[in-house]
Design goal:
Layout: E1 3-8, H1 14-28, E2 31-36, E3 43-44, E4 54-55, H2 59-79, E5 93-96, H3 105-110, E6 116-120, H4 131-140, E7 145-148, E8 159-164, H5 168-176, H6 178-183, E9 186-192, H7 202-211, E10 216-221, H8 228-238, E11 243-247, H9 253-259, H10 262-269, E12 274-277
Parallel strand pairs: 1-2, 1-6, 2-5, 6-7, 8-9, 8-11, 9-10, 11-12
Antiparallel strand pairs: 3-4, 7-12
Helix pairs in contact: 8-10
Length: 278
């Protein structure tokens, strides 16, 4: 986790995303790169075709968002003693990418050369942080995402829970989480009754982690009247977990939109950092 991408925009959950990225940077001596995340400028063709193609843009407002985002990112880094060291190996540092294109597409494409992208938990009541941004990073970068909770966390990665459901997506996420797992004081593999696809058990995963030098333990839970997503968050809270590792969308996004699912619940309700991959 040496390279950490932090899409930045002036919204009320940005302080938590910055704190989460900073905690990850401190843990691994990483480089944090920010850029201004804002909506893509739109175009439309008016009904009066005589007028031809008309661009709807507000360059002044767009530039103001870029400047506010940069001031927010760089101000946080300075306040927390992170040195400006763009691309310099050998310790905690930050840089800023100028002239990043607007829109979510860049989040996914630029994220391909970073170990992780840090984003705020989506907020349905505001434009950012948005589900569209999260899904661009999740599905287009090929890398994991670290989702910050609404309130800034105090620590990250001391006590880690893996929400194991035997899926390919969760296996990829566990592999991405290995730097965290090796540094954690406690690693718990949680398996939910009835919440897995066919595949290796939680105990089999814990055994493989122990062979890799990680002192993993297992926990088995019955949902009873809770959903699997509710059970995961309840168990994570019960042991003071400060990082949840969870594969994203074992079920399709469309199915989860209609019927709900573990990923959808965690994206809506998690109050701790969550590492996800697909």
């Amino acid at each position: 986790m040496k390279t950490i991408l932090v899409p930045t925009s002036p919204h009320d959950r940005m302080p938590s995303a910055l704190t989460t990225a900073w905690l990850a940077g401190q843990r691994f001596g990483g480089y944090l790169e920010g850029f201004a995340l804002r909506p893509a400028l739109t175009e439309y063709i008016p009904f009066d075709m005589v007028g031809g193609l008309t661009w709807v843009r507000d360059d002044a407002a767009d530039e103001e968002t870029v400047q506010r985002s940069r001031q927010l990112f760089e101000g946080f880094m300075r306040d927390n003693g992170v040195p400006f060291s763009p691309g310099t190996p050998g310790g905690l540092g930050y840089g800023w990418r100028d002239k990043a294109p607007a829109g979510d597409e860049f989040v996914g494409s630029h994220g391909r050369v970073f170990d992780v992208t840090v984003l705020g938990r989506p907020n349905a009541d505001q434009a950012y942080p948005s589900m569209a941004t999260l899904e661009a990073a999740l599905f287009e970068s090929g890398r994991p995402i670290l989702i910050a909770p609404p309130s800034p966390p105090q620590k990250l990665g001391d006590s880690v829970m893996i929400a194991w459901n035997s899926s390919t997506e969760t296996a990829r996420t566990v592999e991405a989480a290995m730097p965290f797992l090796h540094k954690a004081q406690r690693v718990v593999v949680l398996e939910i009754e009835g919440g897995s696809v066919p595949g290796p058990s939680g105990e089999e995963l814990a055994r493989a982690l122990r062979i890799n030098g990680i002192a993993a333990e297992t926990m088995f839970a019955k949902p009873e009247r809770r959903t699997a997503g509710e059970t995961i968050l309840e168990r994570a809270a019960s042991i003071g977990c400060d990082l949840l590792v969870k594969g994203a969308y074992t079920q399709s996004r469309l199915r989860q939109m209609i019927f709900g699912g573990q990923t959808s619940h965690i994206l809506a309700e998690a109050t701790l950092p969550v590492l996800m991959a697909h």
